[in-house]
Design brief:
alpha/beta; globular; 15 helices; about 350 residues; about 20% strand; disordered C terminus; about 40% helix; six-stranded mixed β-sheet
């Protein structure tokens, strides 16, 4: 069942350059992109439209210069978009007054940055409680809430330490705790783990997945790492040259890349861990029937990795069933081998 949209971008553009805003908008309205270039404008975000459902983790992935970080700053209005609409709960934030925007940032939206953004002169407790202090909570109230968040991210015992006394992963946990202390509806994460060592990065990904399982926030997460996008995202949007070139689940993107550029990202992804029986099965033609007690079967949501030992023991197709036990298709050894071998061609960015 589709959930309501929490964030929606509609035809968002962001231009940087010497020309006036009025000249740029006139060229956009006329579809004259060559004129923008002639006027010295750089198109950082190009006609981007997408929506993030309530409680969803939506990952925007792209290489350096693709426009992903500019886009998330437009959504928070740290950067003013040149054109389009950005809706939070169906309210256009580009029409908000300064006071309304401040209220949004203080109570409904928090950001987690790549370089932590911690206050070096404040201890862990003071950093986590900072937003609550700005909101006017009493010292007792904010320390109780901050301690709750410190415990939640696994930093008990470090409350009195300063940021420079912590590892990079611990500093990022402080950043997460500070963002969560405000109990925001929305978390905007701009490459928060990219400065961390690979092992610590994996631990922080685990931590975010654990917290999301508990708290069900709406998360917009920026990364340049496709494997990180696959791991964290309910859905993924891939950007190139300021444009959103594909949006879909990890399985949709790996099995049906929109173009060669997207296919290049999926080339080295372990398909057996991403694709499911639903993608590779031959759908059942007969009316709905249940598998027998002694039948060989797998759930439609099973990964190809889970199917391999079931299919490898016989040449007979494996029945695929839905959650109610009805047969919805079948997978043969040949179909499985074909699916595992696809997407391995030589493509390049």
């Amino acid at each position: 069942m589709k959930r309501p949209s929490k964030i929606a971008c509609q035809n968002v553009w962001k231009l940087f350059g010497a020309a006036t805003e009025q000249m740029s908008l006139s060229a956009l309205q006329q579809g004259d992109l060559s004129r923008l270039s002639a006027e010295g404008q750089v198109v950082a975000v190009r006609d981007v439209t997408f929506a993030v459902e309530t409680g969803e983790t939506f990952v925007i992935m792209g290489l350096s210069g693709s426009g992903k970080s500019t886009l998330i700053r437009c959504i928070s209005r740290l950067i003013e978009p040149s054109a389009g609409q950005i809706l939070i709960d169906d309210q256009d934030i580009l029409k908000m007054s300064a006071a309304e925007l401040l209220e949004l940032r203080r109570h409904r939206m928090s950001m987690v940055f790549q370089h932590f953004g911690l206050l070096p002169h404040r201890r862990v407790m003071g950093n986590v409680a900072f937003g609550l202090e700005v909101q006017g909570f009493s010292r007792a109230e904010r320390e109780v809430k901050a301690q709750e968040m410190i415990s939640l991210v696994g930093l008990n015992g470090w409350e009195r330490n300063y940021p420079h006394e912590l590892s990079g992963g611990m500093q990022q946990r402080v950043g997460l705790a500070r963002a969560l202390a405000l109990d925001p509806d929305i978390l905007l994460c701009d490459e928060p783990f990219s400065a961390l060592d690979p092992l610590i990065r994996g631990e922080m990904q685990d931590e975010l997945l654990r917290l999301q399982e508990m708290m069900h926030k709406t998360i917009l997460f920026i990364t340049h790492d496709f494997e990180e996008a696959l791991r964290l995202g309910d859905r993924i949007g891939i950007m190139r040259d300021g444009a959103l070139v594909q949006v879909g689940t990890a399985e949709e993107i790996v099995s049906r890349p929109a173009n060669d550029y997207v296919a290049a990202f999926t080339r080295n992804i372990p398909r057996q861990k991403v694709l499911t029986a639903k993608t590779v099965m031959v759908p059942a033609k007969s009316k709905r029937e249940k598998v027998g007690d002694k039948g060989r079967y797998a759930l439609v949501t099973a990964t190809l990795e889970a199917l391999i030992p079931l299919v490898a023991t016989t040449a007979e197709p494996l029945a695929i069933i839905d959650e109610e036990g009805y047969i919805v298709g079948q997978v043969s050894p040949q179909q499985l081998l074909t699916a595992l071998g696809e997407g391995q061609g030589d493509t390049g960015l």
